[in-house]
Design goal:
Elements lengths: L1 H18 L16 H10 L2 E3 L5 H18 L5 E2 L7 E5 L5 H5 L3 H5 L6 E8 L2 E8 L2 H16 L8 E4 L5 E5 L29 H12 L4 E3 L15 H11 L5 E5 L4 H4 L11 H17 L5 E4 L16 H12 L5 E5 L11 H9 L10 E6 L23 E6 L15 H8 L12 H5 L10 E5 L14 H13 L5 H12 L4 H22 L31 H4 L5 E2 L16 H8 L9 H4 L2 E2 L10 H25 L6 H33 L14 H5 L10
Parallel strand pairs: 1-2, 1-3, 3-5, 7-8, 7-14, 8-9, 9-10, 10-11, 11-12, 12-13, 13-14
Antiparallel strand pairs: 4-5, 4-6, 15-16
Helix pairs in contact: 3-6, 10-11, 15-16, 16-17, 17-21, 21-22
Bound molecules: beta-D-glucopyranuronic acid.
Length: 717
């Protein structure tokens, strides 16, 4: 009888999961553990959940554990309020659980901070139990997700002795979502936030969004676009924001908003937004106090000011520090923070765009209030497939700098390219700034350890929309996942994260996992090769940034063209940023500047970022620059065939629906990859006037053909 029930239950699970294979469940699938031996171990060790749930967070954590385990183990794992048995999972804080209090774990817990946790297999009153303990309810939630992850990835849980805590304090998604639900640079449909039906209608999706973020440790979200609309700060919208905040709160996620600097004029009807004006200061203070009446744990503001047409303090002759501080003072009594972006540059300045943020912000070091973080994009230009790290990292020791990565693939193939970005993030985090000697990595700058800051953070521009599978491309989910995991612990390796994600999202089947990891780990380097090899940058299509556009020139803003960045002519190509050129290299520590500046040491990956070189320049491998450029485009484009073959080789291991989703997108990607190859080679040949080396596929069409292609309604603008 029991067996029949189990079979029926399994059938039911199978049926529902078959119906739901859109990718909606992300990496939180909780399907039955297939490996019977492994499942047997779990069933023996994890029989019930002994957990009191006096708070919304603990309730959510226990629900997650109950649902997760019941799915994974194929049987109901009940929550019991009292009565420990062998196989209990004892979860809680010293406050919520008398057992945990009695375990005298407190000393170990103290070292784990507010969000850390421990997982421990212990014998309690001669019964073997699993403990999940933390100082706070949200710490317990993180511990719950860790235990679930171990099971989802089929690891043993019989002898646990794990402690963990985040390396960064603020781990934040930045949604570039507009109030009309379009998403700037969004390729996964419209905004998640349905402002029209809020606050009355609270979608299940908001809850699942919160669960997904909590599962990877994200603890903040900026709901609105950096190109901000002041309406979000009005009493029309604040109740809606509050409704979202209420859903996210139990999952430890705070809500932040973008603040349009001219709001005192637009909403307050003041004549100025000068940050030193008393009325303006009072306006921000009153407005902030009002926000806290709606959202008592509001996180704070993210601001883009005096950049790409956004209003800012400089319009009043004030500095970015003056601007940030007026908001910081308004937020300080409520413990809120300001994330002030350093993405600032102007076309009117005759200065290399690379250098402008540094020139603007470095002199302000030490002038920001304690609750301000300056949020710096990973590279000096703009989220290119490969950029050197921004020279601001390490250059402002008195200011906590927050990392800004772009998860959405504005410059990385948008919605159609499979690109796993953890290697990009890691490359930046591991880069050595040398600002305090060897080992002064970017990671140590942003985690606060290099300069002793108590606040630290990482922001990721979200790739999430209302697409059924959240991110448009299923593999976009891996970038959301990797961002969260690295914000939690920047020491994790890309491959370890890929391994976890693949197992949780798809299957633990060894052949599948190995193959997919291979595809993921090569994807970013392939992309650099077929888009911007040898340090080329910013050569994408005009405005929508879709596809290649190395020919873009003579537009109203030179720094938005491609030509500005490569200046290819008959003799040479590249941007001279050495002392004989813009000398941007001088913004780095001497070790870094001489490493990139010296052609003997500059890696080929960064060559044209820093050097202007003749086409005939000979690389270390003996090839000419021209040959090498052509070969990299060829290599990058040709890689797609292998990727498709690899993907096809694992057909049948996972559900048909998600398999086909990826397969169709790989076919589109292949076309686009050859389009990049053909268009770029046609263009650069028109500049170099050199013949293609042997074994280079000639472009299918003329350069004019590529130049004249027009695309209507490209998403994201
Ligand atoms: C660029 C995007 C633009 C953003 C801007 C920013 O093209 O849409 O508004 O960055 O980060 O990458 O503010």
């Amino acid at each position: 009888m029991k067996k029949r029930l189990l079979i029926l239950t399994l059938l039911f699970w199978n049926a529902t999961s078959l119906l739901a294979e859109s990718g909606y469940r992300l990496w939180m699938r909780y399907d039955l553990v297939i490996n019977e031996e492994q499942r047997g171990e779990y069933i023996n060790l994890l029989k019930n959940i002994a957990m009191k749930t006096p708070s919304a967070s603990l309730r959510a954590a226990s629900q997650e554990l109950e649902q997760g385990l019941s799915g994974l183990l194929g049987r109901k794992i009940p929550v019991v309020v009292s009565g420990i048995t062998a196989g209990s999972i004892v979860a809680g804080t010293p406050l919520s659980s008398t057992i945990i209090k009695g375990l005298k774990l407190n000393i170990r817990l103290e070292t784990l901070g507010e969000e850390g946790y421990l997982l421990s297999s212990i014998v309690y009153q001669s019964k073997k139990v699993t403990v999940i303990a933390a100082n706070s309810d949200i710490g317990v939630m993180y511990g719950v997700f860790h235990l679930l992850r171990l099971i989802q990835t089929n690891q043993s849980v019989s002898d646990l002795n794990i402690t963990d805590q985040p390396r960064l304090k603020y781990r934040v998604l930045n949604h570039w979502d507009n109030l009309d639900r379009t998403v700037e640079r969004g390729y996964a449909g419209f905004s998640l936030w349905n402002w029209h039906t809020l606050p009355g209608y609270v979608q299940q999706r908001y809850v699942d969004y919160a669960r997904a973020n909590a599962s990877i440790g994200i603890n903040g979200t900026v709901l609105t676009n950096v190109n901000a609309n002041s309406l979000i700060l009005t009493d029309e919208y604040l109740p809606k924001v509050a409704a979202i905040a209420n859903v996210l709160r139990p999952y430890g996620i705070k809500v932040y908003l973008t603040a349009r600097f001219s709001s005192p004029i637009e909403l307050g009807k003041l004549k100025t937004a000068d940050p030193l004006n008393e009325e303006v200061k009072k306006w921000w203070k009153d407005k902030t106090d009002e926000i806290y009446t709606y959202i008592p744990d509001f996180g704070g503001f993210l601001v883009k000011a005096n950049s790409e047409g956004q209003p800012g303090p400089q319009s009043y002759g004030r500095s970015h520090a003056d601007g940030a501080n007026v908001l910081a003072d308004a937020l300080a009594p409520h413990k809120g923070i300001v994330m002030w972006r350093a993405f600032v540059y102007s076309n009117d300045k005759p200065e290399d765009r690379f250098k402008q943020a540094f020139n603007e912000f470095k002199p302000l070091d030490g002038q920001f209030r304690a609750n301000v973080m300056v949020q710096v994009k990973n590279g000096p230009i703009d989220f290119q497939p490969r950029e050197p790290f921004s020279p601001l990292f390490g250059a402002m020791p008195k200011t906590p700098l927050m990392m800004e990565f772009q998860i959405t693939q504005e410059y990385l193939g948008q919605g159609t390219h499979l690109v796993y970005q953890a290697p990009l993030y890691k490359e930046v985090l591991d880069a050595d700034t040398y600002t305090k000697g060897k080992g002064s990595t970017v990671a140590k700058v942003i985690d606060g350890s290099l300069d002793n800051h108590s606040i630290s953070g990482m922001a990721g521009v979200a790739n999430i929309g209302d697409d059924l599978n959240w991110t448009g491309h299923l593999f976009g989910q891996s970038n959301w996942y990797a961002f969260g995991r690295l914000a939690w612990n920047h020491e994790l390796s890309s491959i370890a994260i890929a391994d976890e994600w693949t197992r949780m999202t798809f299957t633990n089947d060894t052949r599948f996992v190995q193959t997919v990891k291979g595809i993921m780990m090569n994807s970013r380097e392939n992309l650099v090769n077929y888009m911007t090899p040898l340090g080329l940058h910013h050569i994408m299509g005009w405005d929508h940034h879709y596809g290649p556009g190395p020919w873009i020139k003579d537009k109203p803003r030179a720094d938005w063209t491609a030509f500005y960045y490569h200046k290819a002519d008959r003799t040479a190509i590249g941007f001279d940023r050495t002392a004989s050129g813009s000398n941007a290299l001088s913004q780095y520590a001497p070790e870094v500047s001489s490493f990139y500046g010296d052609l003997k040491t500059c890696p080929p990956e960064y060559l044209l970022w820093f050097h202007r070189l003749p086409w005939t320049y000979q690389l270390k491998d003996g090839k000419s620059l021209w040959e090498s450029l052509c070969q990299r485009y060829q290599f990058g484009a040709a890689s797609m065939e292998g990727v498709q073959k690899d993907w096809n080789s694992i057909a049948g291991i996972i559900d048909q629906e998600r398999f086909e989703q990826v397969k169709m997108l790989l076919a589109i990607q292949k076309e686009e990859v050859w389009w990049w190859h053909d268009a770029c080679l046609a263009y650069f040949q028109s500049r170099s006037e050199l013949p293609f080396p042997a074994r280079i596929t000639a472009p299918k069409k003329s350069l004019e053909f590529y130049e004249n292609q027009v695309f209507h309604f490209v998403p994201g603008i």
